């Protein structure tokens, strides 16, 4: 009886050891798999933010980056930052480690910094006289710097542990958006001054507009829907073209097309204005023409599109007029 109890106890101990060992190895196996999955995600995040950092340095060169390139690059940076943040938040939820904590700080700080920088610099571009915009930009730089620092610590720790454990690591990039946390406000001041004083880049605005028209001779009156009631005389159209941007525009081509109410072209005129300076307007007069009485005519005016013009809707304008029928 006693030997049977001892035997059963021995079997129980063996089973407990086997169960403990199996559980331990199973847990280690799962943790190893979770860590490998984390490394894959971290490698993807590293690649995305490496591209971001290169693009971010490019958009800070205000003399080289135009508005279209700025919006495209910063939009891509924000998209990559959001993708990185969501990737880390939504995968390997149960996995925790010091390395993951550092990478979470980096991705969240980078995302906060990018979003705040985008909002702040866009405000500055649209309204260069905005007060205290430096504070907002400085805060975005602080967030980016915190992300840089957390990522640097993540990189050091993961490489150190991999060296000790003999773990194979995927490719991780050296990443630095700013790296100037202590000088963030000074950097923001310099950044704003550089942006405002730049002769090119984000603050170049090309925008031509048709800002006025007038029939010659002056109409008798206007109908309720805005059509001009014209004198029974040859008629010309005076057109005002304005440069509402801040850079001089050369070789401005303007087309005037006159059609009757049946869509038939009765007159076509094209002219070229050699140059229009910033905030300057130029006036030209079309040829005088005779139009059929009692028929509403449309004078369609179009400025030919120039390269990288920001607003095109004000490049087109239509006015209507007619000579009253006899009797």
Walk me through this protein's architecture.
This protein has 327 residues and is of the alpha+beta class. The chain folds into 2 domains: 2-203, no CATH class; 208-322, Sandwich (Immunoglobulin-like). The protein contains 5 helices and 9 strands. β5 and β6 (265-276) form a beta hairpin. α1 runs antiparallel to α2 and α4 packs across α5. The longest helix has 58 residues, at 2-59.
Describe the global form: elongated
Helix content: 40-55%
Q: Specify Rg, calculated over alpha carbons.
A: 35 Å
Contiguous runs where pLDDT drops below 50 for at least 5 residues:
none
Provide a count of the helices.
5
Describe the secondary structure blueprint for this structure.
Layout: H1 2-59, H2 67-90, H3 98-126, H4 133-165, H5 184-197, E1 208-216, E2 221-222, E3 228-229, E4 236-243, E5 249-259, E6 265-276, E7 281-285, E8 297-303, E9 316-322
Parallel strand pairs: 3-9
Antiparallel strand pairs: 1-4, 2-3, 4-7, 5-6, 5-8, 8-9
Structure keywords:
Immunoglobulin-like; 2 domains; six-stranded mixed beta sheet; three-stranded antiparallel beta sheet; 5 helices; 9 strands
